[in-house]
Amino acid sequence: QVHLVESGGGLVQAGGSLRLSCTASGRTFTNSLMVMGWFRQTPGNEREFVATFASNGASAYYLDSLEGRFSISRDNAQNTAYLQMDSLKPEDTAVYFCAARRRYGAGWSEVQDYEYWGQGTQVTVSS
Question: What is the pLDDT of residue 1?
């Protein structure tokens, strides 16, 4: 079993920055087998892909509409992934979820591609 815990959400003004963290634990989690990613969800809407690493670890994928404002990174020694969010906009307000998928699974941008999920952290951007 893999356990994911997010932190770093909060309230920020438009144009500000936040950094989310997600730490994985559990016997079956190893960075060689699992890849972490981020999703977000607003009330009444489906969970939306935000960012993840490519299976080869050499690059990352992002939601197109983010226009380069977000950046995903990781610290393998700490089993932790980060989501740096800059130039935040009110439309970025959502609950952000960390997730983990099998490294060589079929996909990377859909909810069903991910096997484990964190509890979510609220990000609120005021105008």
Answer: 84
